[in-house]
Design goal:
The protein has 39 residues and is mainly α. The chain has one domain. Helices cover 85% and strands 0% of the residues. The protein starts with a helix and ends with a helix.
């Protein structure tokens, strides 16, 4: 996912609080969470 799409998702989530968008963001950031948690 490119930065523009990710930014739009955040904007949409901020406005709607959609659970579907939230799930997409969670999946998108899960690799980062694994790296940070592994430190």
């Amino acid at each position: 996912m490119d930065e523009t799409s990710r930014s739009k998702l955040w904007d949409d989530y901020s406005r709607t609080k959609s659970t579907q968008i939230r799930e997409t963001l969670i999946i998108e950031y899960s690799p980062l969470v694994k790296v940070v948690a592994g430190r």
